[in-house]
Each structure stands twice: as C-alpha cells, then as structure tokens.
Specification:
alpha+beta, Immunoglobulin-like, Neutral Protease, domain 2, 3 domains, seven-stranded mixed β-sheet, five-stranded mixed β-sheet, about 20% helix
Length: about 625
C-alpha cells in the first residue's frame, strides 16, 4: 500500500474517535434486540427488499444472562458469506448481511467480534454491541465446534472510514466501495480485529479462508470488481468467490456506473491483467497497466506462482491517495495514474503485495515490515531493473537508501519490529520505516550473505522463503530463524544473525556517524569517524578514496564512543571519499565538521559520487 499526506492526516483525526463509543456497558444484562435467522446472504435472488425488509419467521429466545462469560475470538478457519446492498448509496446508506463461520478456538459461550459504528439490526443469536465491540451469545460450545454468526446491519459513509463514495467533482464519476487499509476492515465488516486501540490480544492480522461475496448495485449500468476480479453477475447482483486464504483487510470491491473494463495483457502462465478505468484515462491506463504482465512474470520466475486465481484487477479510484493491494481489486488512485512513472511504480508495488502481505502475511502489526519491507526490496532493489533504465534504477536504489537513513536516525525513530505497546496508527512519519528502512535492511542482509557466507544471494533465499511460508502468517522471529537455518553450515550463524537483528531490527535509532579532521600529507589521507557511545560496533567498514587514477580501498572498524582514526596511503589526493558505498550498513552521516573533499555513502568506487535526488514530501506518502 502507498499513502499520500492528506490521507495520513485523515487517519490521525479518525484515530481520535470518541472513546466513550468504544466501551462496553458496565452491566451483565444481555441486550437481545429482535433476533432471528437471516436469509442466506449468498442467495442471488435475495435482492435488497429480501435482504432488508423480510419479517422474521420466529424469534430466538434470549440467552440466559445469568452466567459467567467465557469469551473467545476467532483467528483461524474463518469463512465469510456476505451480501452488501449499495442501492441506497445516493442517500448515504449501505446495508449488509454477513455470515461468519469458524471452528470455536476454545471452550466458551461468547464470541467477541468488532465492527465500527454500525447499526446491528438483527443477528442469529443474542448480542450486545456498543458500535465498536460486539459480543454474541450462541450458548455453551467446546473447542473445535463449528460456529456461525449471522448479522444484518446498516451503516453510513461520509466522514467515517467505512464504505466510501469517491466522487470526481469535475466529471461526476463515482466509485462506491469499502476503505480497507490494514486497520480499517472493521468499518465495513464484523471481523475479529479491533481498530485504533493497542490491543495485543485482538489486533492480530487475521485471515479469511474463503469468501463468497455478493454486491447488489442500483441498476444494470453499474460494474463491480471484487475478490476474483470480475466474478459473475445476473441483473444487479455481482458475485465473487475466493477460496485462497488472505488477510481480511485485502478483501474489498469497487462498484461504479462509470468504469470501463479492459484487458492489459496476459502473463506466460495465463494470468490476465484487467483494468477498470474512466473513459478519460483509458488511453493512459493502456500504457501503464501492461507493466502488470512484466511484474507477474518476474515474480513467478524469481519468487513463486500467483495463487489468487487467473486474473489481477487494477481499478481507478478518484482522489484516492496512492494504491492499496486488495486481492483481485487493487485500488489505484487517479492522482498516481495521472503520471506514467508514478502509475507504473504503484502498479508494480501493489501487485507484488500478492506475494508479500496478501500471501505471506505478517502475523501482527509490529511485524508490518515483513510485508512492506519485503515488497520494497523486491520492487526497488530488483524488479524495477526490468522496467526502467539503468540510471533510473540506480537513482531509485540510492533514494531508498537515503530516505532509510533519514527515518532510522530521526529523534522519533522506532525499531523496525516495533514494540507491541505502540499503536500501528500513531507512528506518524515513522509508519514509513517498514517501507524504506525495511528494504534497506534487507539489502544489508543481501550484502552480508555475499561477503560472509560464500557469495550467497538473498533473492534465491527469498524464493525458498516463499516456498516454505506461502499462504501462512509469519513473524520477524520466523525470518530470523529462516536465515539461521539456511546458513547453518557456518559455526557462528546463530550468533551472527541474532546480533544483526538485535542491532538493526529490535532497536532504534540506527547509527549516526560524524566525520572530521581531514588531512592529506606525505601521501596519506587521514580523518576521523565518530560513533555514538553505546551504539553498534561497525566491522569491516569500507572506505574508498576516489582519485584521478582510480579507487583506493580500505576497511576499518568503527568503535562506538571513540574518534576512530582512519589513515589510507594514496599517491594522489582524492576527489571524493565514499563511506560504505555498497550499503552494508544503514546510517546517517554528519558532515558539519568536515573540511575535506566531497564525502558520502552514495556512490560507486569508479565514478564520482552519485547523488540521488532529494525526496520531496510526497515521497513519504506515495
């Protein structure tokens, strides 16, 4: 996913929702409402009238409230059947019928789910709901028992983050669909995930194993793209089925009366890239979206097969900030699509999420970098080389390395695997660290594999990682164990990787180095490198003098808390100096006390320093 600055402000404002609406009543009284069995949400003949207005055949008696609640939260084996009726979109009202089926995760009598600011009108069992937390009371059950919760609800879109109407004010073009960045799924579904509060037990990245989704639209002029991309439809009902596990947040749809579908090409394995765009942009999209074919081909060759059917869908969303990797219906903001370069990059990034994030899933929000860092390293350090010029690719890698150093040395820097007590949605600018610093860290891993493990490369290991972990949930610790296992023929492999993770994944900030006291005298270049007290020791730290006759190399050890003296014999005074130019480390370089030739960590030993363009504000939120 890629975000823009206005969106971040919106998220932070939304995070300040009224806490009073998030607290269950201090009572043991069970609010039963008028509960009943609901119509089958997968019934194609169940139009909006059948879904909303059908009278109950019989009431379900209230569950006896005189009991001790034994609450369980489903995390695995969840299947969803749902019908979303958007025929009232022009009045700001959406109605839904949802059936969640799952094995009981433990013995209990109460199921806890979450849905933000809905009006629950009916349920198949008695329930309590405070517009944040829903408690359902199906009666006593044992671990493994099959459970089903059916709910009928209504909610409005607008200022809230649930079902949204995106409108191009200039043309009147509209798209209706849920806003589902990772933390917002509960705004349009009853799900086992709590938004906006630090909740260690309830904020795991929960997958849905199978989806049967129907979307009822106002008339036959509307089109819908969903989990299986185009799906099937009859009249005003569009049906989508996906039986490959994916995160709940990757479930979405986009409905519009203004979209035109078109094919952007087919991959070697038969995966077809489909676009849904507005008439005014089709010509532009037909130039951008074929990069999806290149992306899927590259990923299937270097990582593994595409496992979400035989189509990838890319759909235009007016004024949407960037892109979002929903399975089958990747949101593409019209702002990024307006320019070829940004449209190509976001297309590639979001499609790669079908391997990292949607397929190999991060287990919990502190492991978010396992999706975004892996995506960005695959994209910006590898795949984009097949799409853009060598110079542009070099600039891209240099830019990511530079931004990583800015983020990881900031005063408010957080560790790559951030603390569980931190809320995912309150990290501000540091929410970008999993992208930039995460990918730069993986390049550190790549470099160290080559230097310290007999020329190994990370990309082939990444293919093995996908083979072992596809369609599962992983943690940072799983990745650490994977590296140790696949380099175990080295005696100190465990200590080696544990030390690297301790220094660069589990703590922040990363090193800030100061250079000074430059001199060139009697054929010797000398200067100092200072490193903060208590920080990481930097071993085999490369220093390269760029001279008219060629590079002169040296390796030094940078001890924390010391002014480390560097002396390198050179027949010529250097025109520039490169500090760790192959990026074995990520650090910031303080040159305020430097009075020598140009010095930087961006460059190559055979040329002058190659400087990446400085990032503008939008870089952090694409």
């Amino acid at each position: 996913m890629k975000w823009l600055l206005p969106l971040l402000f919106c998220l932070l404002v939304c995070a300040a929702c009224d806490d009073a609406a998030k607290t269950l009543p201090d009572t043991d009284t069970v609010v039963t409402d008028d509960t009943t069995d609901l119509p089958d949400a997968s019934d194609e003949d169940a139009g909006s009238d059948a879904l909303i207005e059908e009278e109950p055949d019989e009431d379900i008696p209230p569950f006896d409230g005189d009991f001790e609640r034994v609450v369980v939260i489903p995390k695995e084996g969840i299947e969803l059947t749902a019908t979303i009726d958007i025929t009232g979109w022009d009045m700001g009202e959406i109605k839904g019928v949802e059936k969640l089926s799952f094995p009981a995760p433990a013995d209990g009598n109460t199921v806890k789910l979450f849905g933000e600011k809905m009006i629950i009108e009916k349920a198949s069992v008695p329930f309590e709901y405070d517009k944040h937390t829903a408690l359902f009371f199906p009666g006593e059950f044992s671990k493994g028992d099959p459970l089903t919760i059916e709910v009928r609800y209504t909610f409005s879109y607008g200022a809230e983050m649930g079902m949204r109407l995106w409108l191009n004010s200039g043309t009147g073009e509209t798209v209706v669909g849920p806003f589902t960045e990772p933390y917002f799924t509960p705004y349009w579904l009853i799900v086992p995930q709590s938004p906006f509060t630090t909740d260690k037990d309830n904020d795991a990245n929960v997958p849905v194993e199978k989806v049967d989704l129907s979307v009822v639209v106002p008339d036959e002029n509307w089109t819908v793209m969903g989990p299986s991309v185009i799906g099937t439809h009859e009249g005003t009902t569009w049906n989508f089925v996906m039986d490959t596990p994916m995160p709940f947040y990757a479930l979405s749809f986009a409905a519009s009366q203004d979209h035109t579908f078109f094919s952007a090409g087919t991959t070697k394995s038969g995966v077809e890239i489909w676009g849904a765009g507005f008439a005014s942009e089709i010509e532009n999209l037909q130039m951008i979206y074929p990069v999806g074919v290149t992306t899927v081909d590259w990923m299937e060759e270097h990582i593994g097969p595409y496992e979400f059917g035989d189509k990838v869908g890319l759909v235009s969303i007016p004024d949407f900030g960037g892109g979002m990797e929903h399975v089958g219906v990747i949101y593409m903001g019209t702002d990024v699509l307006a320019e070829y370069d940004s449209g190509v990059f976001v297309t590639v990034h979001e499609i790669v999420h079908n391997w990292w994030g949607d397929n190999v899933r991060f287990a919990d929000w502190p492991d978010f970098w396992v999706a975004e860092g892996f995506d960005e390293w695959t994209t910006n350090y590898n795949l984009m080389a097949a799409i853009e010029s060598a110079d542009d690719f070099a600039d891209r890698r240099a830019q990511y390395r530079s931004v990583a150093s800015i983020l990881c040395t900031a005063d408010d820097a957080v560790s790559l695997r951030f603390d569980e007590d931190l809320d995912f949605m309150t990290l501000g600018m540091q929410l970008q660290s999993p992208y930039y610093y995460g990918s730069a860290f993986l390049e550190m891993v790549n470099k160290r594999l080559g230097r310290d493990f007999d020329g190994m490369e990370f990309l082939p290991l990444l293919k093995l990682w996908f083979e072992e972990k596809h369609l599962t949930t992983v943690t940072t610790e799983d990745f650490l164990a994977f590296l140790i296992a696949h380099t175990s023929d080295t005696a100190d492999s465990t200590d080696y990787w544990q030390a690297l993770f301790n220094d660069w994944v589990y703590q922040a900030p990363c090193p800030s180095l100061s250079v000074g006291d430059y001199a060139y005298s009697n054929g010797t270049v000398s200067f100092t490198i200072s490193h903060d007290e208590g920080a990481q020791q930097l071993d085999q730290f490369a220093v390269i003098l760029v001279t008219p006759s060629g590079p002169v190399s040296a390796a030094v050890t940078v001890m924390p808390g010391e002014q480390n003296a560097v002396e390198i014999v050179s027949a010529e005074e250097p025109t520039s100096i490169l500090i760790d130019p192959e990026w074995y480390y990520v650090f910031a370089l303080d040159t305020t006390g430097w009075d020598g030739p140009l010095i930087d960590f961006i460059g190559t030993p055979n040329t002058a320093v190659r400087r990446a363009p400085l990032p503008d504000a939008s870089l952090f939120f694409r």
